[in-house]
Amino acid sequence: MSPRTPAPATPAPRPAAPTTGRPTGTNRPTTDTAPAARSTGTTRATATRPTGPDRTATSPADDYARFCAGIRRTCGIDLEQYKRAQMERRIRTFAERRGEPDLGRYLKRLQDDATELDAFLDRITINVSQLWRNPEQWDVIAKRILPELAPTGTVRAWSAGCSYGAEAYTLASLMARHAELHGPFRAEVRGTDIDARMVERAREGRFSAADARDAPNAELRRHFVPETGGGWRASPELRRTTRFVVGDLLRGTAPREGFDLVLCRNTVIYFNEDVRDALHARLAAALRPGGFLVIGATERVAQPAALGLRSVQPFTYQKTEA
Ligand SMILES: C[S@@+](CC[C@H](N)C(=O)[O-])C[C@H]1O[C@@H](n2cnc3c(N)ncnc32)[C@H](O)[C@@H]1O
Predict the structure, then answer these.
(1) In this structure, which residue's CA is closest to atom 13 in ligand 1?
(2) How far does the centroid of ligand 1 lie from the alpha carbon of residue 128, in Å?
(3) Helices in 184-272 by DSSP H: which ranges?
(4) Which of 219, 57, 54 has the alpha carbon at shortest distance from 131?
(5) Contact 127, 158 (CB under 8 A)
(6) Cα separation of 13 and 19, whole Å?
(7) What is the pTM of this model?
(8) Which of 65, 214, 259, 309 is least crowded, fewest Cβ atoms below 10 Å from its Cβ?
């Protein structure tokens, strides 16, 4: 078993939220690596706060670029880091549906109307998730990764782009099961997302029947409590294992905390390739040597060796060096 003395039980006490040394606004929800992460309604502390140079104002004919600059000033989300064709189409279609095809006027409306801003951000930060999403990846985590990590006595994991927490709770379930079968270890799962409302939902740990459609029945019953209406709530043990904070993956320094496992699935698909590659470098930097990075089933790390990663399974990398 463990070369270290295993803690008596999972989960581990919660660590303090990481800080970046950058200023935080009043009323802002707990932030991780995001000084200006998505905020909504009453928590919109970043509105009107400049977040950096306006990189798009030099192309006056480009109403989309001006719109992006305005959104960045308004709520800190940098839409220019996302794939333009896809994001622009989504935004223009949404603005038209809301009755305002002119992006300049739509920006003004977003700046004046917190409810509309919420609806807009809901549309652009695609939050789709589910418990045990891509079951084959959870098989790799259960059979290949946890058996290697758990004997060290502590597994600290990060669900980067966690949405409403399905990925983090699935991982916490696997960890709890592994501890039941093979002995206790300290388990911590941190989830971060740019979307404050998703983070609030994640803290609740509630899932619909549809969210649970691919979850193995026995695991669901073991670690989740049925709710009226067919939904499920994560058990108190899982909720103690997990911790959720708002964080923008594209801002601030990568947490250099030596995570044992980082999951970043179905989040970089919206980013430009160079942004994606830079993010993968930050995720690799957040791992301890020997730690694992799991990415989405349709994704790839462009140059794993350059980041000190080696591919050990499809969509699974292990850090080889510091
Ligand atoms: C499709 S969900 C993926 C959820 C989960 N990882 C999964 O695979 O089921 C993508 C998430 O990435 C988040 N996201 C998008 N841009 C982000 C950023 N810059 N920083 C942090 N999270 C971001 C979105 O808010 C959304 O919740």
Answers:
(1) 161
(2) 8
(3) 196-204, 217-223, 236-241
(4) 219
(5) no
(6) 18
(7) 0.80
(8) 214
Burial of 177 (0-12, 13-18, 19+ CB in 10 A): middle
Pocket probe for ligand 1: among 245, 267, 271, the residue whose CB has the most ligand atoms within 8 Å is: 267
pLDDT at 185: 98
Q: Which CATH code is given to the segment(s) 135-319?
A: 3.40.50.150
Return d(Cα 80, Cα 91) in angstroms, integer.
Answer: 12
Which residues in the chain are classed under CATH 3.40.50.150? 135-319
Q: Where are the beta strands (DSSP E) in 165-215?
A: 186-193, 206-207
CB-based contact 246:31 (threshold 8 Å): yes
Written as one letter, the residue type at 18 is P
181 Cβ below 6 A of ligand 1 = no
- Strand-pair category, 224-226 with 232-234: antiparallel
**Mutation test residue for ligand 1: of 194, 269, 283, the one with most atoms within 8 Å of CB:** 194
Are 229 and 133 spatial neighbours (Cβ–Cβ below 8 Å)? Answer: no
Pocket of ligand 1 contains residue 32 by CB under 6 Å: no
Residue with tokens 């320094």: 253
- Determine the pLDDT at residue 124: 86
Question: How are beta strands 287-295 and 154-160 bridged, if at all?
Answer: unpaired
Q: Which residues contact 130 (CB under 8 A, 6 or more apart)?
A: 166, 210, 211, 212, 213, 214
